[in-house]
Write a structure and sequence with these properties.
Radius of gyration: 25 Å
CATH architecture of the largest domain: 3-Layer(aba) Sandwich
Strand content: 15-25%
Largest sheet: 8 strands, mixed
Number of domains: 2
Number of strands: 24
Strand order of the largest sheet: 15-14-11-16-19-20-22-23
Distance between the termini: 38 Å
CATH superfamily of the largest domain: CoaB-like
Bound molecules: cytidine-5'-triphosphate
CATH class of the largest domain: Alpha Beta
Shape: elongated
CATH topology of the largest domain: Rossmann fold
Length: 402
């Protein structure tokens, strides 16, 4: 029983998939969860409260006022009771209400007063699911910290086939179990990550860049977000985006833009991870027009870019943790330790360039962690997701700063 003692408030809205709420309720109860259910008014057209009340072993709510018993359903109490508010299925209509703060029914009012995490599992027709207004509303609720259980692909009630099916109840159950199991050691922490390559323009069509894929930065961002942190990623152009819906992305191109975005929020951050492969130099002048081919050779004058980690390292507050990366081809440990000190890092992650399964573009990596106190830690070749977890473990080992 993975959910013993967990209080789950299940919201059911008007969708053909509402019938699946019955099976979902059974699965949650079987795992030991205490389940209370709120239905939207239109959900009543698809499944009866009696079915859900019987399966959840609790009364089902759908009105603010219960005329039969002359009682008022307190949405604030329901919202405070729950450890998790799971809305499955959520229709486009209810999603729009949540995104915009409308509360013309008990379910939407409870959403506004709930303090617990909220998970929503959309179910709708494929074109509805892709409509810009629905995408915008999903983005909005993600920015409120809600967790989306993305619709699955397959045959839809309309007869069409595509993405829009409610996530299967078994998969929803897995997500709920993972949610309660996951380590939330970084809850309440704000994390800044620079990730990916920078692009330094030569002219309107050309730039200087590097092979960084942003995979390591994305894995670190996802690991922090899953551990409860509020994650801000300043992301170089074309770099891999984190999967976690809650991560806030600041897209940039040049090192200068990356610095400007990072500097704006640096002060409010608790942990900063400098995972970006920042170009050290940029063309002195950017040609306004495409440079024409003339002569047998050409020279581009370069000027030094700002060192983001070094500059922000000088402003590091006592409570802040800075983590850096190093990629070296010779004298690796010496250079990594030098950067640890020079850039005021608490921890530096040295990428190995000598191993087959480590480095740029790959899904695996092998790293060594060097701490400010002189200690170190080495990994095997592992998926970047595992390396990210190791880095988070390393950060947890750092002396607690008050
Ligand atoms: N870094 C940065 N801004 C730069 C250059 C580097 O923030 N302009 C950060 C990287 O994100 C990384 C660390 O500094 O966390 C080390 O980057 P690296 O390129 O290895 O070091 P450099 O200082 O550029 O030294 P060199 O290229 O000479 O090895």
């Amino acid at each position: 029983m993975h959910l013993k003692g967990k209080r789950i408030l299940l919201g059911v809205t008007g969708s053909i998939a509402a019938y699946k709420a019955a099976h979902l309720t059974r699965l949650l109860v079987k795992e030991g969860a205490e389940v209370q259910i709120i239905m939207s008014t239109s959900a009543l057209d698809f499944i009866t409260p009696l079915t859900l009340a019987t399966l959840s072993k609790n009364p089902v709510y759908h009105n603010f006022f219960d005329a039969k018993n002359g009682s008022w359903t307190n949405h604030v109490e329901l919202g405070l009771w729950a450890d998790l508010f799971l809305i499955a299925p959520i229709s486009a209509n209810t999603l729009a209400k949540l995104a915009n703060g409308l509360c013309d029914n008990l379910l939407a009012a409870t959403y506004l007063s709930a303090r617990c995490p909220v998970m929503i599992a959309p179910a709708m027709d494929l074109d509805m699911y892709q409509h810009p207004s629905v995408r915008e509303n999903l983005k909005k609720v993600v920015s409120y910290g809600n967790i989306i259980l993305d619709a699955e692909s397959g045959e839809l009630a309309s007869g069409l086939s595509g993405q829009g099916r409610l996530m299967e109840p078994e998969n929803i159950l897995d997500q709920v179990i993972t949610h309660f199991k996951s380590d939330k050691s970084f809850a309440g922490k704000r994390v800044l990550i620079t990730s990916g390559p920078t692009q330094e323009a030569i002219d309107p069509v050309r730039f200087i860049s590097n092979h960084s894929s942003g995979k390591m930065g994305a894995a670190i961002a996802d690991a922090f977000a899953s551990s409860g942190a509020e994650v801000h990623v300043v992301l170089g152009h074309g770099a891999k985006k984190p999967k976690h819906h809650g991560v806030i992305i600041y897209p940039v191109k040049s090192a200068n833009e990356m610095y400007m975005e990072a500097a704006k929020i640096h002060n409010e951050m608790d942990i900063c991870v400098f995972a970006a492969a920042v170009a050290d130099y940029a063309p002195k002048d950017v040609a306004l027009e495409k440079i024409k081919k003339e002569g047998d050779g050409m020279t581009i004058d370069l000027v030094k870019n700002i060192d983001i980690a070094y500059t922000l390292g000088k402003e590091k507050k006592f409570h802040q943790i800075h983590v850096g990366f190093a990629l070296e081809t010779e004298n690796e440990v010496f250079h990594a330790k030098q950067k640890l000190e020079k850039k005021n890092f608490d921890l530096i992650v040295l990428n190995s360039m000598r191993e087959k399964g480590a480095g740029f573009q790959l899904d695996t990596n092998k790293v060594s962690l060097f701490f400010e106190d002189g200690s170190s830690l080495q990994s095997e070749i592992m998926p970047k997701e595992e390396i990210a977890k190791l880095i988070l473990e390393g950060i947890k080992k750092l002396p607690v700063k008050i």
